[in-house]
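Support reply, case 0932

Customer input (verbatim):
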Amino acid sequence: MAAPRFGLTLPNRGVIIGATTVEEMLEMAQWADGAGWDSVWVGDSIFAKPRLDAIALLGAIAARTKRVRLGPACFASTPLRNPLLLAYQWASLDFLSAGRTVFSACKGQPQPGGGEFDREFTALAIDPRSRVRRMEEAIEILRLTSTREHVDYQGKYTQFRDVTVLPRPVQQPIPIWVTANPSPVTDATAKDFERSYKRVARMGDGWMTTGKTPAQVREGIQMIRKYAQELGRTLEATFEVCVYYNINVNEDRDKAFGESKKFLDDYYTVDYHRDFLELWVAMGSPKQCAESIRGFLDAGATTITLRPTAYDQRHQFKRITEEVFPLLT
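Our regenerated output:
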């Protein structure tokens, strides 16, 4: 079994809600680069959940780091951005970072936690019903333009001829993970549940997910591999399974829960129930947090991204690095 990989998720919406600053995020990215973390991630949204732009922030992080991989957790605005312009911007970021990017495609969500979803799509004149196909076209265009030069593309929403993206990205093609968080409870039909995992199997170099139990992650991996086989695709050994997770290290577990709830309620403008936060956040002592993370690793996750759900981000970073990680390696 390969060694687990850990990513630090920086709360770039925190510059609006008072949870962090630009300098603190850049400082923590540098610390992660030197302290053995494998990757650094930032969230993405435009108007639904306003924040410091993901691509702009990742460019700044790229300039302040040397080793860690860089990506969005996840790129919720994928269907909202012009895909050819996005391909150009991402190629520049990959070039700037010397080939350290991972793109994680996402279609956004109208459910609680998705912010002002309808207002965002209206402002950008995009029909939300088109977002799945728009995301798929963006994935196809990102992969095509990063692999070849002088390319043509004829999609439902985007068409172009003889385009070469310069400068060329270092990674050709760039790695693309597909985000999927289907739930048979909330999805309209079982067919939607199936489509989500089939999309990962067909289009992804990896799968990013969140808000699931270890058992659900294990089941998702099995389904993705099954669908890939049915599609005639052999998933590479490098295929990644990434769990987007949260963490608050505090020996007083009730205080860890209380701070996590305040942080996440403020971040997403949602009144989260305890049952969901128990699922979504590793809380408590270093040992308790490590046990929660271990469950996902045992289920088959290859990367765990951790966002400190705290208003003292530096303190949490130190505790995770020095007290939790030694229990997991």
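We compared this against your earlier run and they match. Two observations from our side: The mean pLDDT is 96. The domain at 5-327 is CATH 3.20.20.30 (TIM Barrel). Please reopen the case if you see a mismatch on your end.
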